[in-house]
Hints:
The structure holds two protein chains of two kinds. By secondary structure, chain A is an alpha+beta fold. Chain A is built from six helices and four strands. Chain A has helices at residues 26-41, 47-72, 82-98, 123-126, 141-153, 182-187, and strands at residues 104-107, 114-119, 158-166, 172-180. By secondary structure, chain B is of the alpha+beta class. Chain B is built from three helices and five strands. In chain B, strands 2-1-5-4-3 form a five-stranded antiparallel sheet, sandwiched between helices. In chain B, helix 2 (88-106) runs antiparallel to helix 3. The interface between A and B is medium-sized, with 28 and 32 residues.
Amino acid sequence: MSERKVPIRASILDKPLIRPKTEVSLSSFAFLFSEIVQYSQTRVSSIADLEKKLETLGYSIGQKLIEMISCRDRATKRETRLVGMLQYVSNVLWKHLFGKAADNLERSMENEDEYMIHENSPVTNTFVSVPADMGHLNCAAFIAGIIAGALDSARFNAKVTAHLVESETGIDRTIFLVKFAPEVISRE
Amino acid sequence: MVVFMIVGKAEPLYELEYGRQQGEGLDDVAYLHEFILYSSLDMINNAALWSNSATFLRVVDKFNYLSVSAYASQGGKIFLLLHPGKSEDAVRTFFVEAHELYVKYLMNPFANADDPIVSPHFNAHMRNLAKKI
């Protein structure tokens, strides 16, 4: 029986992971994201489904992102407390994704298990104009998915939703509402 | 003779056995090793994971002459190594390199973070790492 030689191709595992920080241009991201939204639009039947689809895409990114960043930073410590984890997300993850820390992180007054991350103009929404018949579609569902993926992966199970808050000063802020699962709260 | 395992939230994602000597019985020894690793996992999940905020959790369990060392990543993946008392530095280096290899595997957009790892390339690279300890 003759043996077939398999050609050795350099796989992704051979390439170095630690690379100098590279930046992606905003326009290429915006282009790619607009294509993602259009692609998803043709495959769903409602606004909620579109948001869900964007969130699912972000979720898988969040899961991998948190692993990669913790490995790349050669971290010897990890976050075990809830507030520490949220600060990790709003500082380290945000800096990696958007080049700056999140604008604000606060705890909800009404509920013990809700926290809010503020972001003035998320990159997913800056180039998106929502037509009237789409009503309350918020493309920041993509970023909400990233946050949810990262938190779930780190065993802080949470539901994250994006909400647009219009303020009188003219600056529209997006708030990511993070609602933690009961077992996370009881663990604290 | 070392046994390495990567565990996600729900199930083991990867298992590697390296360096089995001639003459060691096959089936029962393998089951025993898995059992030791799973039972140490219970201990980690309930205690060490939340009280210790370091990534390298050192030796978490002992069984006869074998000890289980653990390493937890921020992404909730636990790396376990069953070994006959290797030096801590060697184990720590192994874990860090294994973590880096795992992240490289994850960077593939078709790889799901929750699925078991079946890539032969990953297996080959992991064997090389296991050889070095």
